[in-house]
Write a structure and sequence with these properties.
mainly alpha; 2 domains; four-stranded parallel β-sheet; 18 helices; 4 strands
Length: 384
């Protein structure tokens, strides 16, 4: 693809003017291909939502088991932030992408999806971000629920000086997240555009990506290997996790050695079950769960606290999700929430809180069990 055959339109995702600009540009240029800043998942979800089709339910068990919970939450809260701005401005987020697709179909142009898979992007971002960066992100999300600030002049976002200022701030606040969410995607989209076989192409991308894409197109040798941009690195096992893995092994060894030495361990086992189970139960019920979920939390906590790959909240969350009949409406509605009370009443959010509360309770129970059960048993076993 020759660059003179490409027109890049930088948009604000919640801008009425961007919607008009995109439609006018496509009608004026009559491209044979319209490239949009979407991946297949987002494209399908956008078209389904446009046609009024949504999934009937959410498989919370599948989300937890496949380690998708963090990505799921980030996706929901990012959608919430965009929708909140869009509601203030009277335009639906992503409207410019929809109009680009509709106008392309209207003139008989093909659609090219040029963005990287959102799941890969979010996984790479979460893996790369430091604890401090993640904490800043979470704080920003929480603060947004209570913020009354409104963005009056969204068109200023497309101004080059404003974009440069915003990008500089983002890069300083979270350099690793900036690299994954902006720089890597600029490179990926530039590579996708280079490989499009078309004589007249209009590309619709966020204003923050336009400059980076152009620079990569002008200097394609700077585009990193695409395979590397699609790889999800396995994070190193930190010292904290190694300690967590060693705790259950130490516990079991203490119980076994005590049994070998003829020490009565039945009382210690009973105390361990009672303490870990009770606090897991309390953490679950105080988080607003049904009684059956709390009972499950009590039953599984003594086992999950000894297994580093299991969590009591996993089980209580699954039971709670089934009892509350979580649907895609809960996921959609969570992006429309304007108050903490509405957030609390959302079934999906409640299940997540119950999972967290159960795990916190089980953790407190474990630490108490260490001091009340494990240490005394260790002293008896080794004669301290």
């Amino acid at each position: 693809m020759a660059q003179e055959n490409l027109k890049i339109i930088g948009t604000a995702h919640v801008s009425k003017e961007s919607v008009k600009e995109v439609k006018q540009a496509i009608l004026l240029n009559q491209p044979d291909i319209v490239a949009v800043e979407l991946d297949m998942n987002r494209y399908q979800n956008m078209i389904a939502e446009k046609n009024g089709k949504t999934k009937s339910n959410i498989n919370i068990k599948d989300i937890i088991k496949k380690d998708k919970l963090s990505i799921f939450l980030v996706s929901i809260f990012l959608s919430y932030l965009q929708r909140k701005i869009g509601d203030n401005l009277g335009v639906k987020p992503g409207s410019e992408m929809i109009i680009a697709i509709e106008t392309a179909e209207e003139i008989g142009a093909k659609i090219a999806l040029i963005d990287r898979d959102i799941n890969i992007t979010l996984k790479r971002a979460l893996n790369e971000m430091s604890f401090i960066e993640k904490a800043k992100f979470v704080f920003g999300i929480i603060a947004s629920f209570f913020s009354k600030d409104e963005l009056d002049d969204v068109e200023s976002i497309k101004d080059e000086n404003t974009i440069a200022e915003v990008m500089k701030y983002f890069k300083e606040m979270s350099p690793k997240a900036y690299n994954v969410l902006v720089s890597e995607r600029d490179a990926y989209m530039a590579n996708m555009l280079r490989n499009i076989d078309g004589e007249n192409i209009v590309a619709v991308v966020g204003a923050g990506h336009k400059k980076g894409i152009k620079e990569y197109l002008e200097h394609p040798q700077q585009i990193p290997p695409i395979e590397g941009l699609l790889t999800i690195k396995k994070s190193r096992i930190p010292l904290g996790k190694l300690i967590l893995f060693s705790i259950p092994i130490i516990f079991v060894l203490i119980f076994v050695l005590a049994l070998i030495k003829g020490i009565n361990i039945e009382t210690s086992i009973f105390k361990f079950i009672l303490i870990t189970g009770s606090f897991s139960f309390l953490g679950c019920i105080l988080s607003g769960s049904k009684i059956y979920s709390a009972i499950i939390a009590f039953i599984v906590a003594p086992l999950t606290t000894l297994h580093p790959l299991l969590a009591a909240g996993f089980f209580s969350g699954i039971v709670e999700a089934k009892m509350r009949h979580i649907s895609m409406d809960d996921a959609v509605n969570i992006t429309k929430i304007d108050s903490f009370q509405e957030l609390w009443d959302n079934n999906l959010f409640r299940v997540i809180i119950i999972m967290v509360g159960t795990n916190i309770g089980a953790s407190i129970g474990l630490f108490l069990a260490i001091s009340k059960v494990i240490f005394p048993l260790f002293s008896k076993t080794f004669g301290f």
